[in-house]
Write a structure and sequence with these properties.
seven-stranded mixed beta sheet
Length: about 140
């Protein structure tokens, strides 16, 4: 059976703490990790219609992020998020009248974005991640 969920591409560094990504089969989006930032453009050129958003988690400079934004496929209307070392970030979204908008977000804004889009596992009432979620989550998918 094929997975019909929209894709979130995540380019992340492997030498930093892992976020509590929501990788379960019940997640709103399918998260696919790319090993290198340069693969993001390739993935968008070949499957932008399936990609809902792109997260660049400390794997690109501001200049590389802007270069990616200027070369996005015209049919890609998803979010593009550049997360910096201190968890502040820049969010690029499609504008209502065409073009793209750029927002500067704080670390708190980032956590809100990740939670409301269902990209990270939600803590239970005590504030702890459910152990079952971490154990039963499928292995990450890499390009």
């Amino acid at each position: 059976m094929s997975d019909t969920r929209r894709i979130t591409l995540v380019s992340r560094r492997l030498d930093v703490p892992v976020r509590a990504w929501e990788l379960s089969s019940e997640a709103q989006n399918r998260i696919i990790f790319v090993k290198a930032f340069k693969l993001v453009r390739y993935a968008l050129d070949h499957a932008s219609h399936d990609v809902d958003r792109v997260l660049i988690d400390r794997t690109a400079s501001a200049a590389e992020f802007l270069d990616l934004l200027t070369t996005l496929p015209s049919d890609f209307l998803g979010d593009v998020l550049l997360i910096r070392e201190d968890d502040t970030c820049f969010l690029s979204t499609a504008g209502r009248a065409g073009g793209r908008l750029l927002y500067a977000l704080t670390g708190t804004d980032l956590q809100f974005y990740l939670a409301t889009t269902g990209l990270v596992a939600q803590p239970n009432v005590t504030g702890q991640l459910r152990t079952l979620d971490l154990i039963s989550a499928p292995a990450p998918c890499y390009l």
